[in-house]
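Re: the pair you flagged

First of the two:
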Amino acid sequence: MIRYDVIVIGAGPAGLSASIEAAEAGMKVAVFDENTRPGGQLFKQIHKFFGAKEHKAKIRGFRIGEELLAEAEKLQVDVHLNAAVIGIHDFNSIAVVENEQVSFYKAGNLIIATGASENMVPFDGWTLPGVIGAGAAQTMMNLHGVLPGKKVLMVGSGNVGLVVGYQLLQAGVEIAAIIDAAPKIGGYGVHASKVARTGVPFLLSHTILKAEGEEFVTGAAVVEVDSKFQPIKGTEKHFDVDTICMAVGLSPMSQLLRIAGCEMKEMGGLVPACNEYGETSISGIFAAGDVAGIEEASSAMVGGRIAGAASALRDGFIMQGDFEEKYKALKESLNQLRQGMFCKENRGKTDMTATEEGIPLSNSLLEKGYLLEKEIIKFPGVKKKAGVHPIIECTQNIPCNPCQTACKFNCISIGENITALPVVIEDSKCTNCGMCVASCSGQAIFLLNEDSEDGFVSITLPYEFLPYPKKGVKGIALDRSGNRVCEAEIIGLRTAEAFDHTALLTMKVPSEFAMSARFFTL
């Protein structure tokens, strides 16, 4: 039986982070994962992360995965792939299926970071080919380069549904609609807005009724629901689609922890009862990431590091004082990610009416995915100034500050509170570098130049669709709702390594559309 100081089960963001932290303390570490490649969800995530610099903000998920793998390799972490852990036995020994044989390993500490699995809602026709999970669609597109379909109905408006919906659009897939049984969009407003301005409609208080087709999906029927989520007769709608994509939540994959005999509790699925360090009711067994409670990948990485450091403390690889200093910094970082309108304490709240700054929340954003022009001007990131200046359409208190750190000329301020709304500083001078536009994880920043040409304005917007429109091309400007508002001409396109594949597209539109034109299409 091969022995390690720490065995980590799961090579996703939490597992890799835990293994790195433990290995840095001098522990002999092994990671086991049932998949053919490590990284978990990270390599499917082509969007930029939220948070602060220490949370890998404005870096795309797959790049974060590459960084973690490089760190683990440098620290000589043993990564076992195609290795399914099928049991945890007494004294922290595990049984693993490798190469069609069962092997046994033992460690002083186990860190379980098995993640979560997609939920599914049964409905008429839900087993037809063409009904898939959002994570499966993301895997097909971003790992294997395969389109899951040509026209998709997305079920679920949480961050997963919004992010995957946008990535489907980037891949050239048409989104018929995004529906949700809830009366309000569940994910970040900036995610919803970047989908809405491409013209995708949102249908809230609607649920899937039926997947149509005999051998595969050929259409979908949806129905409006009342306040008790019961179907309302006569409100059925039909969509001609070949794919129904389900983004209806995740459930922790906690089976191994239950097998081990850890105390469990109900929290959006069965999760282990853990102390502040991630240690379960069984000494030496830790849980990190989604298996300990569904959160963002950024939180999973911090939680993994806490568990890795705690396991090192438990076996004497680091001193108590050093651990406490490290834990204090990690806990503070984790607390930052758990603040704002979408924090755990606010989940399910229906009485939230204003931001932390007292600005009324937009019902249009919550119900349709976009703000009205009369609403956007109330926010501190939207100010009329001479020359080129940023327009920041970030209107919810979410933990994110790359725009502040990206601007070297102090045009943008968030302050010490990471969930504060961005503010455009009155007497600042924008240099038109575009770093704020490219760095915004929510694609919510635009550069407006009202002095570019008589009767016209130029608007620089983040653009992540291929092929890029060429300078001189004429097309149509769309507003926040995806409606056509005017003709537009491309007068500039900037790409740079520092922009990390977010192009800066500059279009010229008539002056009266300065505050409404927000997307370009041919």
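Second of the two:
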Amino acid sequence: MRGLIAVWALSFPVLPVGAALAQERAVTEAALPRAVAEEIVEFFNRPTTIHFRGASRIPPERVIVGDVAVLGGPFTVLGRIEGEVVVVNGDLEFESGGSVQGDVTVVGGAVQGAGAAEVSGTLTVYEEALRYVHRGDRIRYVGTRRRDRGRLSHELGFGRSRFTIRSFSSYNRVEGLPVMFGPIIETSGSHPMRVEAFGIWRTESGFSFDTELMGYSARIEQFAGGHRAVRVGVGARSVVEPIETWGLTALESSLATFVYHKDYRDYFERQGWQAYVRVTPQGLPLDATVEYRTEEHRVRAPGGPWALVDNDEPWRPQPLVGEGTLRSVVANLELDVRSDRDDPADGWYLNARVERGLGGSLAIPAATVPGGGTGPAAPVELDERFTHALLDLRRYNRVAPGARLDLRAVVGGALEDRALPPQFQHALGGEGSLPGYRLFEGDCGARNTVVAYGPPGGVQEPFFPAYGCDRFAVLQVEYRGRLSFDIGFGGDDDDWDEIWDSWSVDVSPSWVVFFNAGKGWALDGPGGPGGTDTSALYDAGVGLLLGNLGVYWAVPLNGDERSPNFFVRLGQRF
């Protein structure tokens, strides 16, 4: 890649070899040209390139003959490399005696200890990270970040600004499609400040643009620590959010709502402000956040968004949630050491989340039971000093070429022996957790009764009295194999083979066998659905994966209903 890098080096600061031997290298704050990015990807994908991933070290006595590409880092050189070196999205560290007999290029990182090293070529540093995706053992340049698409961008002398118009979350039966719009302003430098201010138009409200029916989301972030490793921010928001999201993606929920009139999620409204610290160390698979929140929570009834199928049918009722104020502290930790984020063949994934209520004034609103029954005559006060936790642990195992055994355990709920506010409860059943059972089959009795609720003098809407269980546990096991088909035309005649060679198709779908088990527990307290634990639920099934499309059949293994469920997922189940 020397020729192309040398051309671009005329436009961006490059550290000459002599300077590299004399002083430390400062990070070059330069954008990464697309041509250079594509050349780096081509360099990485060469079959002769030697690859390293994550924190790696070349000891003093080791000599590597050939070109070297590194993903992540830091990459520490004490020995000798006879070839070019490219470090992608990581730091390069030289120690005394380290030597590279060729050009050195660092993208999305920094160079340390250059004065102690011998570099026979040029040393070029681009601060901007390379945006790529894995495709097996290769990488592919993706160019503009996905979150920047659909934005009007303008470079400023002190940074840049963008105007965004895009969906805020999934298409749902409460808001329709929430569309966010507003500016993003970001200063330049290695420690930028970022300001976002969005209005949220909910298509369910029509084209009136009444501010009382709209939401908003605004925040100010200050980056620190180099490479955006630390950010401190404050924000304010008024949004409608799902109670539970771990089972299905937002895209899958949106399509099910729009096409099949089947919303897989329940929602509530939250309005307030938050302050947070987020740490994402460069070169480490770690993302940690601590956040303080002061919010107002409200019940939201279903609206009337359009659906392709059964559009005239009423939407499923929403659950009642604890209304009022809540002050809380939230800690979230994500550790991802999978071989590939989108299609991992091996590795671990961990997400742990804990929220501690500090106080407030949450209460379940009074409601009536249709048909003569009477609900609570007054709102039921809830205990805001709860502790809620959720743990999602996954292990991916390559057991043979083209075969994997994957396991996932998800547990969550109250850490104390008392019921949670409904907006922090959990429910099992449906394609996201136990696909052999109907949606919310394991809700600890929360949907056994329908109540009527509405503002004084307003329309009374049907609601469920709670959302689900106060504790739950799910185990998912999946074995995946590969089916290979080579479809083509031809025979023994060489000319015939040559003619039809371009018409051959290599199809490699995957087959899947899976098993799931889950159980929910209800605790005593005013937020609970009545203290009814679910029975242990088991299901099993098979599926076929065609790229990002999965077609599955699942059947319950216990219970009165044993009918199989056919469903489609956009990608693997977990």
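Residues 474 and 518 are 4 Å apart (CA to CA).

-B.
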